[in-house]
Structure formats: C-alpha cells, structure tokens
Amino acid sequence: MGPVKQRIANEDYVTINVGPSHPAMHGTLRAIAYVSGETVLGTDLEIGYLHRGVEKLGENLTYHQFIPITDRLNYCSAIANNVSYEMAVEKLMGLEVPEKAQLIRIIMTELSRIADHIVLVGILGVDLGAFTPFFYLFIQREEIYEIFEWYNGARLTNTFGRIGGVEAPLPEDFEERWSKLKKGLDKAIGETDKLLTHNRIWMDRTIGVTPISADDALNWGFTGPCLRACGVKRDLRKDEPYSLYHQFDFEIPTGKHGDVFDRYMVRMIEMRESVKIIDQAFAMYKELGPDEPLMAKVPKIIRPPEGEVYHAIESPNGELGFYIKSDGTDKPYRIKIRPPCYMIFQAFDELIQGEMISDLIACLSSLNIIAGELDR
Amino acid sequence: MNDWTIAIIKVVFIWSWTLLIATIMTWVERRGSALIQDRLGPNIAGPFGLFQPLADGIKLFTKEEFAPKHAHKILFTLGPVLFAVQAFSAYAVIPFGDKIVINAKEIVLQVADVNIGFLFVLAVGSLAVYGFVVGGWGSNNKYSLLGGLRATAQLLSYEVPLGLAMLAVCMTYSSFSLREISLDQAGTFLGFLPNWGFFKQPLGFLVFLVAAFAEANRVPFDLPEAESELVAGYHTEYGGMRLGLYLFGEYVNLYTLSALMVTIYFGAWHLPYIDMSAYLSPFAYGIASFVVFFLKCAFFLWLFVWVRWTIPRFRFDQLMGLGWKSLIPLGLLNLFVTAFFIQISL
Amino acid sequence: MALKDSVLKVLGKKALAFDETAGSLFVEVPKEHIVACLTLLKNELGFDFLSDLFGVDNSALYEKKKKKKKKKGEESEENGGSVQEEPVPPRFEVIYLLLNLETNQRLQVRIRVPENDLTVESATGLWKGANWPERECFDMFGIKFRGHPYLKRLLMWDEFPAHPLRKDYPLEGMGEERELVYEPEGEGHWT
Hints:
Oligomer: heterotrimer
CATH architecture of chain A: Orthogonal Bundle
CATH superfamily of chain A: Cytochrome-c3 Hydrogenase, chain B
Largest sheet of chain A: 3 strands, antiparallel
Number of helices of chain A: 16
Distance between the termini of chain A: 24 Å
Shape of chain B: globular
Radius of gyration of chain A: 21 Å
Order of helices and strands of chain B: HHHEEHHHHEEHHHHHH
C-alpha cells in the first residue's frame, strides 16, 4: 500500500485511520497512522478527496470567470487567493493597478489573513481541549465577515476584485466598523493569550512537539508561518515586495524550533501585525479622494499576450503562486496553482515519526492544512 | 415507622436525589459553559432552558437501541450497567446532613454508617474501571479500545494518590467512618481555624482535588473520551439509554467525589464558628445541615464545570507522569508530615 | 541581464534557450541533464529553494500553430511557394521554479519531454519537497520520474485509467467510476 506501510512491514503495529471524516480534520484528508502502543511509527497520507480539477477548469473558462474558482482554494481566506490570481494576470498583461485599488486589496488581504489565523488558533485550541478561546476569537471573525458582506455581499467565498483593480470602494462606515473590530480583536487575542500562552498544560502539549529544523523545512519547500516558526525570516511581503507593502512598517515574527508552539505564536503575533498594516493602509486610503480610479484600463474581453508568468504573494498559509501560460486567446492555456500547504503536508510523515497520537492531532492542526488548497 | 421503612426511604431519597443532581448538572454544564464562552446556551426548552435535561432524558430514553454488528452482545450492554451501578452505590456511606428528628425519632442523614466508610468508597470507586474497559472492549472498535485502555491506566494510577490523601485524613481524625470524621470537624483548633480537613491537611486537599479530577474523567484528564483525538473514546459506539447510563454515571461520580471532598475536607454540614444545633429546633437543624452540605457540594460541582471549559487537556504520558511522579510523592510526603504532627500531638 | 549571464556561465552549453516574460526568466535545458543542471544551479548560483514543479501539455498549442502554418502554406502554395513539413516538437514540458533565498531572485528551468520518452530523472535527491509535485505530474500527465521513492497517483485514485490534465482528455471526463472493493487486509474486523 503506502510507502510507510512498506517501510514498517516487519514491526508490530495497529492501524488507526484518521479521517477523511473525523472531528479533528481540516477538510477531507486521510492520515493512516501506524501506531505501536501510543507511539506513531509513521503515517501514510491520502489526499485528493477534494480534487475538483480546478486547473483543468481554468483552461476552459475565461480569465474573469476563473476568479470565483480561486475563492474555493483556501476557503478560510478567500480574498488572498483572488488577489494572487489577479496580480498574476496583471503581471502577464503588464497592467498597472491604481493606488486606491491596491490599498483596498491590501486592507482586504490583511483582514482575511486575520480571519485565517483566527481559524487556526481556535481549532488548535479545540483539538487540544481548550474550547473557550475558539468562541472568543470566532465572534471577532463574524465581525470580519460582516465587513466582507458589507463590501461585496459574500461572507466566505468573496469573489473579490477584478483583473486590473477592484470593483467598489470601501463602504462609508468602514472607519467605525474597523475601530470596533480593532478593539474587539485586541481583547479577544489578549484573552486567548492569557488563557493559553503561559498555561502550563498548553506549553507541555505544544512546546517540543514535532519540531523541524530550518534546513529540513527549506528542503521540503515550507513557506509561510510554518517556515518562520523554524527561525527563517522569510516573508514575500518584505523579500519580494509586491503592491504597496514596501511603504508599510511591520515586523516579521520568527520562532526558534519550528514546533507547534512556535507556529501558534507566530500566527498570534502576525494577527497583531496585520492590524497595524490595516491601520496604515486605511490612513493612506483616507487621503485619496473619491474620484480616484479603481481599475486600470482593461478591455472587456481580456486577451493577454502570448507568454508565461509566475507570480506569488504571501497568503496566510505561505507562498501562494499562480503560473499562467497564455496563448493569446481569452482563455488561459495552463494555470498551475502553487498551494503552500501542499509542500508542508508532504513532510507530515517525517514530522510525526516517533511522536504520540495526541501529538499527531496537535501537529496536524498547527500546520493549517486546508483541503481545498491541497487538492485543488 | 420501623427501621426498615426508614432505611428504604433513605435509599430511595438518596437515589432520586443523586439522579436529580445529575440531570441538573447537565443543565449547569451547558449554561455554565455558555456563560464562560460568551454565548447563550439552551434557553428555549422552558424558562432559562430548565427543561432541557428533561428533553435530553426523553431523547435518550426513546432512541433506538442499536449495537454495532460485531460487538460482543453481553459486554456491550454490561459496560454502562456496571458503570452506573458503581456510581450510584458509592454514595451509600457518605453523609448528606446531620441528624433529623421526625415524630420524636432520630434519623441519621446517611444511608449506612459503616465504620470502614472510606474504604468502601474507594473500593466501589475502583469498579468504575470495569465499566470503561468492558464497554471499550465490547464495542469492537479500535477507538473505543484505545479509550478504554487509557481510562483503565488513568483510573488505576490516580486511585493511589486519592487513597493516600484520604489515609492522611483518617490519621488526623483517627477514624475510618465518614460520619465520625464529619462530627469531628466541629469546633476550632489553634484558636481561630475551624477544625476542617482543609486547614489541617492543605497538601492532602490539593492531591485529592487533582486526583478527583482524574477519577471523574474530567478535563484536563478527559483523555479516555477526548473528542478530537478518538472521536469519542470508549463511548463512540453507544447511543440511546446505554450512553445515557454512561453520561449520568459520570455526573453521579462527580457528585460523589464532591460530596466526599466536602465531607472530609470542608466540615461536611458544619458552618464555621457557628453551631447551628444551638439555635434551631432538631427538625429545622436537620434540614439546615442538609442545605449547608448541599451548597458546599454545589460549589465543587461548579468548580468542575469551570475548570473543564478553561484549560486544555493533558497528553497521556504527561498525565501518567503527573500521577506517578508528582502526586504520589506528594501524598506520601503528606502522610509523613501528618504523622509527625500527630506525634507532637498538634 | 546579470542573472542571464551568470546562468549562461554556469550552465554553459546546457542552457539551450532563454525566455523572458514580464520579468520572469526561463531557461531551457536538455532533459537528460536536468538533475545535473539543477545541482549546478543549486550549488554554484545559490538557487537552493524549489518552489514548485509541474508539467505543461503543449499539444494544443502545436495544433494551432500547425493549422496556422497550413493555412499560410496553402496561401503561399497558391502564390507558388512550397509547403515544408516541420518536425513534431516534444509534447510535454516540465517546469521547475527555483528561488535564491539570499538575493530573492527567481529562475524557471524548463525541460521538454517528448511523448515517446516520458521518463525524467527525479529531483527528490536534491529536494525532498519534489516528492508530491512529481507524483502529481505523473498523475496528471503521465510523465514518469526515475528514482522517485514512491511514484503512484496522488490526487486521482490508484487505478484511474487516464491522465486528466492532458489536452486530449475532455473536461467532463470519460465516465470513469471507481469500484470500491472493501478488503480488511486479513486483520479480521479491525480496519
């Protein structure tokens, strides 16, 4: 069967099937754990339960028709996927997006980053038995959804933006909503911090659990918070600045050992940094007048010139990249999506060898594996 | 009223009372967790959702009684039955008040005043292991088996610190009978501290409290039924009244442990510094002692709920490490210190 | 561009062609030397991070170009020219996306894989992270990677008969169904 089963064929083990439907899973994926006592000898991974042929679909839809499909990749932070795809097409066409649209994109991407990290911290807590921070954080996530709904009508899978810009300015009452949300987020993140970060049981459960060295992580192709937790200070917003990120002042948190605790702390701090970015972006936005253009000059039917391009942004999970090959028609020739958690999940077997079943669940939760992105 | 009638009335009363408390506990758990988690909780079935336990009970009673195809037919039903029987029996020797006088007849508010009271509680309490392991094995399911194994190891390990703490209490009050221990906790010692076990045995209380959490399978020790890891542990395959027996048995166990804690550490029915029997008629005193005892138990029941929704759960090896490497040495230390203090007749 | 020059210097004759679109540099190397080239790029030029690895099926592009050429050829035939037969270019290509962590430069390496010789040497020796992308390439296009530790299908089920991302596979699929045979593998009732 799987490669791990061949490897441990001579040992005494019991097969425990974790998934595809299990209270702890992040989407439909299957981890067949081979367990001896409480120690995991290895896991065989089976993915593809949510494979929808997104790349093949992209070859049969126009560039604009593909935007709603990118929503469904990482559905916890749909806007980041939309923005990444649109920027890739704009790079191919050589479009210059006006400043107001870029600011709106940045604000929305950072809001969706906060939403994604809230999901991770909440679910990590629930999987480890701390049920309460989930509720405190998700109340704030509802407020974020309200902002999204107020912007273009959709809460979860917002088909945000157009190729060349965005479709609408921020709603007029964004300032009040944002200040209310900021206070709520501060309180919720602070309470979660107090409940979890210095809690002895939490620290015992997460510190030293499935660490990974920086070299190993880079070899596997890790990006995003899981890589930053290993101590590698890499963030596409700082290293290959796209859009207007070079104008903002924010920090990149890094961990030390790459264990579950570091991944959790990196995300907690990143939430606060995102709040800072939104503040600065909104201050810049307020200075722009209402007559600024929201979209570049784009023809009604988009026919990019022949060529291929790869563009990546820093999505909440890591480097989300789109490779688009155009043959001059209005439909792309080949779209390849580089999902961040695809490369991370490969390493799961190596991460979990020798740990216990409870650690398997903690590790899986902390890697933020989202099946929509994994399987496309 | 002869003694037989009184005994039967006491048994029936205590049985219904513990069942009532168990059902109310489901309501307290759900509303309490909602309070902690900034949400509402059940509020539709009756005012404040007070009829929710009734609805839950009806649901459990009327559900289809199914068993998995290859489950062991006898063991599958025997597990919850053993567990429930054990849960209800343990309360037989724990007092729930002092004396009450009805029609010039003095009735002790305790079902059976056995003079090896606490040994009985420990012995019956260890039967809980059978409930878990039989249920886990009989389900024919790997997750249930894992849950049953974990429960066995956990319960057996944490009975030792429980016993050690209680042993120290028995040394302090020179008796095994729970009624005598309660009676001994009247008055003060050292001039101003009430004669309660909590002040005489602070370390013992700590050990007992942690071990009680583990014996009751509550977070942070709820690995046997860890939802996100093992689906639902030893009661994965259960539904209907069998599951009802497991769940109610768990709450009755909780009530028994709280009552035990109150009896040996918090002065049972005594109020600090006030001797109620001097101010009240014997009948009213009986009722008052029952009420005071119950209020103290209620505090501990709330403590169990509070802790459940606040802190995460242990990993299994950490749990065992805590039991064997921390609590048992502390319990032994407590024994030695108690013996020392008794020797210098404090 | 400086990057192009340094790549040319390191790879020498192996760099067959360069492409640059919108700031991304593509270099084509021969299929047989891919691992050697990747090793050179990794060790000498510091491209030590493999971002992604995937395949492209160019058959539809060639069909279109052939049609255009045929049309042009017919027109020129009417004008008195001759039709030339072009050799069929390799159908597939595999693209490796590399990243230099120090200088933050990206480089795309391309190899062409003809339909009659679908084996490529695996890059899992250099990067552990090439494991699943190569499996997916095999799953979607049928390109086999020699030396891969476990080359089985990843996203589709193991016995799926076709390679879905090829251009001749229709979008609606061909109605394949999976026969679910439940075998507890000799462990009795436990699975």
